[in-house]
Amino acid sequence: RSEKAKDPKSALTKAAIAKLLDLKKQYKEKAGKDYVPEAASAPSVAKVPSDVQALCSEIEAQGELTRQEKAKDAKSAAAKAAIAKLLELKQNYKEITGLDYKPGQTPPTKSQASASTPSNASALYAEIEAQGDLVRSEKAKDAKSEASKTAIAKLLELKKQYKEITGQDYKPGQKPEGSPSNTADVTSDDAATLYDQIHAQGELVRSEKAKDAKSEASKAAIAKLLELKKLYKEKTGHDYKPK
C-alpha cells in the first residue's frame, strides 16, 4: 500500500506485490485456506504434551529396571521398591491423561487427554466405593473416633469431586456413563505388577500387626491391602490368591 501510494507502476511496487502474492500462496499451502486479514491463524497440529512424553519415557525406563530386579530376586527390597515406583508413575500418567498406561501405545494429544472424563470418573467412582468400605469399617469400630471422622471427611471430598467431574451426585451401583470395562484392557504386565504390590503390602501388614495390631499404622496398611485386592479383582475379574 505504501509503495502503490508513491507510484503504482514503479519497480518497487511491482516487486512488493509479487512478494505479497508469493506469501499468500505459501500461506494457503500451509493452512489449506486463503489468507483473510485479521483472521489469520496458524494451522492446528495435534501435539503430545512434553510432560506426558517425558512420563512415558520414565515409565519405560522404570519398567525395564523392575524386570531386571525381579529377574535377580522378585522378593528383594530392591524389586519391591522398583515395583512401587513403577505403579506410582503409572498412576501419575493416568491422573494426567485419564487413561491407563499401555506399553507401545502413543500418548494422547492435549485434545484427547481433555476428552477423557469418563475414565477419570470411573477411577473416582472406584475410589469412592473403597472409601465407603473404609468408613463403614471405622464406624463399626467407633463412630466417634478420629479415624471415622477423617474417613468420612475424605469420602465427602471424593463425592464432591465426582459431582464436579460428572455434573451429577454419586449413587452406589450407578457407574458413570462411558465407564470402560474393567477386564477388557488389562494387560498381563498390569496384573502381575498389581499382584506383586499386593504381596508386598501383605508383608507390610504382617510386619505392622506383629508390632501392634491395633496401631494406626496397622489399620492403614490393612485398608491399603484391601483396596489393592479390590482393584485386582476389578482388573482381572477374579479374587487375589497367594501363590
From TrEMBL:
<feature type="domain" description="WHEP-TRS">
    <location>
        <begin position="51"/>
        <end position="107"/>
    </location>
</feature>
<feature type="compositionally biased region" description="Polar residues">
    <location>
        <begin position="107"/>
        <end position="122"/>
    </location>
</feature>
<keyword id="KW-0436">Ligase</keyword>
<keyword id="KW-0067">ATP-binding</keyword>
<protein>
    <recommendedName>
        <fullName>WHEP-TRS domain-containing protein</fullName>
    </recommendedName>
</protein>
<dbReference type="Pfam" id="PF00458">
    <property type="entry name" value="WHEP-TRS"/>
</dbReference>
<feature type="region of interest" description="Disordered">
    <location>
        <begin position="98"/>
        <end position="123"/>
    </location>
</feature>
<feature type="domain" description="WHEP-TRS">
    <location>
        <begin position="120"/>
        <end position="176"/>
    </location>
</feature>
<keyword id="KW-0547">Nucleotide-binding</keyword>
<dbReference type="GO" id="GO:0005524">
    <property type="term" value="F:ATP binding"/>
</dbReference>
<dbReference type="InterPro" id="IPR000738">
    <property type="entry name" value="WHEP-TRS_dom"/>
</dbReference>
<keyword id="KW-0030">Aminoacyl-tRNA synthetase</keyword>
<feature type="domain" description="WHEP-TRS">
    <location>
        <begin position="190"/>
        <end position="243"/>
    </location>
</feature>
<feature type="region of interest" description="Disordered">
    <location>
        <begin position="165"/>
        <end position="199"/>
    </location>
</feature>
<keyword id="KW-0648">Protein biosynthesis</keyword>
<dbReference type="GO" id="GO:0004812">
    <property type="term" value="F:aminoacyl-tRNA ligase activity"/>
</dbReference>
<dbReference type="GO" id="GO:0006418">
    <property type="term" value="P:tRNA aminoacylation for protein translation"/>
</dbReference>
<dbReference type="InterPro" id="IPR009068">
    <property type="entry name" value="uS15_NS1_RNA-bd_sf"/>
</dbReference>
<feature type="domain" description="WHEP-TRS">
    <location>
        <begin position="1"/>
        <end position="41"/>
    </location>
</feature>
